[in-house]
């Protein structure tokens, strides 16, 4: 479709990723240029296209031409774009990403590919992300033009039971973690007796390494509102909350604005679209606690308490917020609902597998060439996502592992790259879908360090209520800290404890998995169990040979100064926190291995690159 | 939806005292105004909602967001999510602490800087990420982070 716009439109991607890459300056640049110029131009914002490596991304719509995407657009590149628009200068081909369509072959002449046929996009299936990075998230009109609120309209023509049945028939499963069937969850809340019920959208995306929920809220907030309104109608709720991380200020702002627009247009509030159904939606800002991703903890937090989980049953569907029946779904799950209602369960089932229909959005990051948000049909192989869409490992280093599912998930090695990405296959392989973080790790990553990283995280986020998680995870963390500690820093007792910890580690991990009270604790040992399973030799090297093959665990390394390069400036002496560097001014210095705590600070400060590790 | 910015000037009224769910929003609004939760304000909140101070304190210490100490003039968050971690966030953190002479404290003695490591800022493709006073800086290195801090310090000195 060519642009039907009569005025040249510049669209800057201003999601959080784009802003981190400098989109604000690019937006300011175009705003200034437009103000200076005499011609009419339109400057708009959009959410995240998902191709974060190429941020800042700028789209241009010139009358008569299809929409074009460019990236990365720095302020310098923006000048080239501006001269193309304002003076008809040649299309800056080096940083054109592609055309959104090209029905008349105009751009083929310019050697511009179709964006959706380029390697990053061609194997993706964009249902949830279809609007993200395309429409202006601050404009209800653009959401409506793209088919928005059709799902809600159809839902209101059906009975609540029929809506529940449609979602059940679609086979949609919760995108936030364990993959519980969404329709069934709705059914329980629908069947629970009571006039007062609630829907909650879990936007407390706490998994380090996952940001799809943020991106959906920033790029397509109305889809979440529409999905929640449908859920509320289905279960009979008149009030709902979006529980969103306070670390996502832009998402909160966009959602707040979208709620106001929806209210004004009659998609929220009293008597929605003259159906007699009323629904009020409020935002609750989370205060930063990973455990609040667990639904009973999240409810406690909304109630103004410490966010600690409680035993289930009763499930929130029977007794949730303020003791009333409550349905909780995560952002991505909710964002799937409008499509299911608008186009029907059958249309949704065309994507994905029998047991895991639909798509899943992954945050593909780490040591991968093309990183960003990737939406893939369920059942796609890991290899296809990492190597075809992601382009493989950065810098052509060797692939080592992919971490899936955040602190609850696991690390899978190269041999398992042919694993299909669906709920059940991932669990069988020792990882889990989690919220869909996918961190690619190359040979420079130490798997013991990765396990330690996650254990540190879960130990500090454990709410402390149940013993297996509070004490067990802390013991696991201690053991891992012992493994990466240098022998010389150890007392004999510590040495003994380390040995004991190593021999008991696997057993302890299994006990925690089987006995912790909530999902956080039960899955906390997964990073250890999966790395032990697939990267045993790396643990052995740390434990028996006291060395870190990847060169990451600094305590097992030795820092030294290359006398050829050292000028004796003394900067490292001043920066060393433990007075471990000795030497006379203007003569090469040396590091006392006994005193060195291997923080690596000196290496960063040395202007001559004289400090090295072995 | 936006919380009142003037808690001290009697905007408590927008928070229904009978609704226990307002505790966290009220604490957030208070922190927004003061930059942290001063002890007298904790007492005020408890008094207003009819809760014990211990209860409010319990909630304040449970969540990462709440601070009981004032924040430095410049607030730097170093993301330590998974992607940032594998790309060297820990080194950036230790180098910045060394540059600012911080040992256990997170705020410098002159009150110019507070440095925190945070779980995940959610822009993992830009890893490693540093948030300086609300502005995200992607693809950081220890060197670039040092420059950011030194630039701020130079600016502060000029201003002083």
Structural write-up:
The complex is a heterodimer of chains A (614) and B (160). Chain A is of the alpha/beta class. Chain A has five domains: 8-117, 3-Layer(aba) Sandwich (Glutaredoxin); 140-349, NADH-ubiquinone oxidoreductase 51kDa subunit (Rossmann fold, 3-Layer(aba) Sandwich), CATH 3.40.50.11540; 359-442, Ubiquitin-like (UB roll); 447-544, Up-down Bundle (de novo design (two linked rop proteins)); 558-613, Alpha-Beta Plaits (2-Layer Sandwich), CATH 3.30.70. Chain A is built from 24 helices and 18 strands. In chain A, the strands form five sheets. Chain A has a five-stranded mixed beta sheet with strand order 2-1-3-4-5, with helices on one face. In chain A, a hairpin with a 7-residue loop joins strand 16 (581-582) and strand 17. In chain A, helix 6 (150-157) crosses helix 13, helix 7 (160-170) packs across helix 10 and helix 9 (212-219) crosses helix 11 (249-264). The longest helix of chain A is centred in the last third of the chain and has 24 residues, at 492-515. Chain A starts with 7 loop residues before the first strand and ends with a strand. The model of chain A has no long low-confidence stretch (mean pLDDT 93). Chain B is built from six helices and four strands. Chain B has helices at residues 23-34, 39-49, 53-62, 82-86, 89-100, 142-159, and strands spanning 74-79, 113-118, 130-132, 135-137. In chain B, strands 2-1-3-4 form a four-stranded mixed beta sheet, with helices on one face. In chain B, helix 1 packs antiparallel against helix 2 (39-49), helix 2 (39-49) packs across helix 3 and helix 5 packs parallel to helix 6. Chain B has two domains: 6-62, Arc Repressor Mutant, subunit A (Orthogonal Bundle); 74-158, 3-Layer(aba) Sandwich (Glutaredoxin). Chain B is an alpha+beta fold and 160 residues long. The termini of chain B are far apart. Chain B is 42% helix and 11% strand. In chain B, strand 3 and strand 4 (135-137) form a beta hairpin. At the A-B interface, helix 1, helix 11, strand 8, strand 10 and strand 14 of A face helix 1, helix 3, helix 4, helix 5 and helix 6 of B.
